Amino acid sequence: MLLYTEKQLDVAYRIDCKARTKCHEPWVQREDFRPLYEDLLESYMIAYSEDDILGTDIPEYLIDSVNELLESTLTLD
């Protein structure tokens, strides 16, 4: 189980919406974005985790890193 706040989800969702707008792509509904965000968080945590931290609160630095990743690399084709 991944634990994150709705505020953290909202920030990532706004980043996604901005990227979609720049690429003239339609936005996804916020609740449809949730599983995408959770998959991204889980993948990121597994890739960069030294310990098994799944099932605990996600450290703020990981949320920040995911948001930076979204801002710098999100492109839609």
SSE inventory with pairings:
Elements: H1 6-22, H2 30-48, H3 60-73
Would you mind describing this structure in some detail?
With 77 residues, this protein is mainly alpha-helical. The protein has one domain.
Q: What key phrases describe this protein's structure?
A:
3 helices, 77 residues, mainly alpha
Total strands: the figure is: 0
SS-derived structural category = mainly alpha
Number of helices: 3
Low-confidence stretches: none
CA radius of gyration is: 13 Å
- Element string (H = helix, E = strand): HHH
In short:
The chain is mainly α and 77 residues long.
